[in-house]
């Protein structure tokens, strides 16, 4: 486990972007699952502004760790945010994005997307293998869209499950543990003081960490990288 703590959100985005650029440079093709929510926006802006011509984007196939069950132009859509802040600003072949279709019936989309992953990703240990899965952590310790009150979904045999946001009831399609932990590398991208306590409990395996889906992230390769700003990492010794 490698923990990178940067001073600000902007510097965290820069540090992560440098890590990503190195990973892409040393591979011919990279299958990456993006996280959603607001944190990745800073990284997309950094990549679009300062890594636009430093990365051979044709090498990268983009997927998602989760998506809200909304149309792709909805302001809640993780795809829309990535398209607005990154894809629309870089030379990325249109066939290189594989969005979860939030407009589809959730249960059908979970099956369709799992099938797409099996078809597109290389296999390892009998499961599809991402080169990199990027994850955020929610204030409640969720990751992707596996929430504490549905933590059992993490151990589903399916690669994708339909989840439900505990407060809003919003349906989500989410990757599950067996494909996330089969990735070559996993990167947690977490900023903000509101995440500091959860980050500490998860890294130190303290408090109620075993109730948090994010604490179940443990890539079989052992290659887990944390990218934190000083606020999110303030309790880490
Ligand atoms: C989503 C996510 C989710 C997110 C965390 C953190 O679709 O919301 O993938 O797991 O990473 O909720 O969200 P913030 O970055 O907005 O704090």
Q: What's the short story on this structure?
A:
The protein is of the alpha/beta class. It has helices at residues 9-25, 39-50, 78-85, 106-120, 177-180, 196-204, and strands at residues 2-6, 30-34, 60-64, 66-68, 123-124, 127-128, 132-135, 160-164, 171-175, 185-190, 224-229.
SSE inventory with pairings:
Elements: E1 2-6, H1 9-25, E2 30-34, H2 39-50, E3 60-64, E4 66-68, H3 78-85, H4 106-120, E5 123-124, E6 127-128, E7 132-135, E8 160-164, E9 171-175, H5 177-180, E10 185-190, H6 196-204, E11 224-229
Helix pairs in contact: 1-2
Bound molecules: 6-phosphogluconic acid.
Structural commentary:
- This protein has a domain at 14-133 and 156-190 and 217-226: Rossmann fold (3-Layer(aba) Sandwich).
- The two termini are 15 Å apart.
- Helix 1 (9-25) crosses helix 2 (39-50).
- Helix 2 (39-50) links the parallel strand 2 and strand 3.
- It has six helices and eleven strands.
- The strands form three sheets. A six-stranded parallel β-sheet has the order 1-11-10-7-2-3, covered by helices on one side.
- It is α/β, with parallel strands linked by helices and 237 residues long.
- The mean pLDDT is 98.
- Residues 35-39, 65-66, 78, 136-138, 142-145 line the site of 6-phosphogluconic acid.
Main features:
alpha/beta, 237 residues, globular, Rossmann fold, 3-stranded antiparallel beta sheet, binds 6-phosphogluconic acid, 20% strand
Proportion of residues in helical segments: 25-40%
| Main sheet summary | 6 strands, parallel
Overall body shape: globular
Give the distinct bound molecules.
6-phosphogluconic acid
Determine the number of helices (DSSP H or I, runs of at least 4 residues). Answer: 6
**What's the CATH architecture of one domain?**
3-Layer(aba) Sandwich
Low-confidence stretches: none
Strands in their spatial order, largest beta sheet: 1-11-10-7-2-3
Range of strand content: 15-25%
Record field, number of beta strands? 11
CATH topology of one domain: Rossmann fold
Mean pLDDT: 98
Separation of the first and last Cα atoms: 15 Å
Q: Could you tell me the radius of gyration in angstroms?
A: 16 Å
What is the CATH top level name of one domain? Answer: Alpha Beta
Task: Find the structural class using helix and strand composition.
Answer: alpha/beta
């Amino acid at each position: 486990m490698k923990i990178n703590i940067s001073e600000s959100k902007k510097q965290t985005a820069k540090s992560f972007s440098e890590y990503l650029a190195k990973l892409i440079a040393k591979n011919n093709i990279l299958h990456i699952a993006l996280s959603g929510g607001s944190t990745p926006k800073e990284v997309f802006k950094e990549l679009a502004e300062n890594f636009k011509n430093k990365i051979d984007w044709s090498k990268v196939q983009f997927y998602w760790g989760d998506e809200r069950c909304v149309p792709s132009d909805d302001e809640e859509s993780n795809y829309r945010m990535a398209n607005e802040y990154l894809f629309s600003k870089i030379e990325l072949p249109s066939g290189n994005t594989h969005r979860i279709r939030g407009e589809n019936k959730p249960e059908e989309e979970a099956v369709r997307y799992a099938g797409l992953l099996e078809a597109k990703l290389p296999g390892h240990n009998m499961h599809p293998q991402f080169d990199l899965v990027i994850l955020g952590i929610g204030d409640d310790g969720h990751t992707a869209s596996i929430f504490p009150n549905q933590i059992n979904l993490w151990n589903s045999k399916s690669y994708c499950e339909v989840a439900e946001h505990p407060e809003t009831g919003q349906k989500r399609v989410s990757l599950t543990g067996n494909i996330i932990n089969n990735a070559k590398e996993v990167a947690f991208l977490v900023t903000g003081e509101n995440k500091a306590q959860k980050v500490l409990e998860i890294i130190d395996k303290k408090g109620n960490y075993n109730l948090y889906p994010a604490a179940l992230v443990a890539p079989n390769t052992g290659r887990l990288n944390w990218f934190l700003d000083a606020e999110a990492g303030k309790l880490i010794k």
